[in-house]
Amino acid sequence: MTDGAVIVEDLWRRAMSGERAEVDRALRAELGARRGIPTRLRQAMGHSLFGGGKRLRPILVLWTWDALGARDSRGGRRRGAVSRDVTVKVGVAVEMIHTYSLIHDDLPAMDDDVLRRGRPTCHVAFDEATAVLAGDGLQALAFDVLAECGPRAAEMVKLAAAAAGPAGMVGGQQLDLDAEGAPVDAAAVRKIHAGKTAAMIGLSMALGGVCRGVDEDTVTELGAAGQWLGLAFQGADDVLDVTASSTTLGKTPGKDAACGKATWVRVEGLEAAQRRTRRLGRKGQRALMELLPSGPVRDRLFGLADYMWQRDR
Ligand code: GRG
User: Fold this and answer.
1) Does the pTM of the predicted model rise above 0.90?
2) 3-state class of 116 per DSSP?
3) 119 within ligand 1 shell (Cβ under 6 A)
4) Could you give the residue ranges of the DSSP H alpha helices within the chain?
5) How many Cα neighbours within 13 Å face the side chain of 149?
6) What is the rounded CA–CA span in Å between residue 305 and residue 284?
7) What is the CATH number of domain 3-310?
């Protein structure tokens, strides 16, 4: 990692520690408030929910909400805006979907990984069947939480279903499985990454907009900016798989190549993949500059976007 990237990472980690704690508290409150969950299932859900995740997606929801501000460019109030507390809850729902996807992705039937965030994966700590159910439970719970999130909850549920569903993350995961060891080009890799990773990052920014009550076109544009950043985030992940150690990564490196995964590193080499990641990241950041009012809150989100493609883990 370059010196600049170290500084970006350090600044960002410090800046988001408050929000991370806020999201953790809200996650504990949401899970704790739900009755009737069998003890072992609750423990398995908790194992993965509280396993040291960065909370990137909820923080994107929150920082997008922050950066948009309460008033539109003519000083008027917007339609169906919700409070910061409700926005945290929306972020919690996104993190539940993200966590479910990681649990299922780690299963022997998929990526078959034993380490996640430096700890045993859910099926290793519990068992495969429980891990499947923990993922299922988190996904259902996420939609239950979202449905409680204000006057535009139905719109949020639709957006989340599209991003997480068969034409989004789940579809991307299918394409990813189909592409293992098969001939792929950069466009095919892009399609996989757009579904598997970028859809949920785009969703996070789009939901930040809905929580501020912006119009549908702006929600779509925020989602598109998030998609660029999500592609860059996954580009960085592909690169890290060949450049990082398991200590910094918290999971097994070198797996992409060993499993014949479709990555930009595989189809065009390390340096071209690094250049592509940089291009995508900058494109996402330009979109942020156009969509959000200038000021320190936008700059903070811009810094987070920097981190997304310059990270070392
Ligand atoms: C199983 C339906 C289904 C989908 C799986 C999430 C996913 C799709 C696959 C995980 C593998 C992978 C490389 C995903 C790319 C996205 C990514 C880098 C996820 C990790 O996100 P972070 O870094 O994780 O935000 P933390 O641990 O901080 O939550």
Assistant:
1) yes
2) strand
3) no
4) 3-33, 39-49, 56-68, 84-106, 122-125, 128-146, 153-164, 169-179, 186-193, 199-211, 216-243, 246-249, 255-258, 264-268, 270-291, 296-310
5) 34
6) 8
7) 1.10.600.10
- Domain ranges in the chain are 3-310
> Are the C-beta atoms of residues 310 and 237 closer than 8 Å to each other?
no
Residue nearest to atom 16 of ligand 1 (CA): 197
Q: Is the CB of 202 under 6 A from ligand 1?
A: no
**Over its length of 313 residues, how does the chain's per-residue pLDDT go in tens digits?**
555 566 666 666 776 778 899 999 999 999 999 999 999 999 999 999 998 899 999 999 999 999 999 877 766 668 899 999 999 999 999 999 999 999 999 999 999 999 998 899 999 999 999 999 999 999 999 999 999 999 999 999 999 999 999 999 999 999 999 999 899 999 999 999 999 999 999 999 999 999 999 999 999 999 999 999 999 999 999 999 898 765 665 556 677 888 888 999 999 999 999 999 999 999 999 999 999 999 999 999 999 999 898 877 6
Ligand 1 pocket, residue 198 CB under 6 Å: no
**Ligand 1 within 6 A of CB of 270:** no
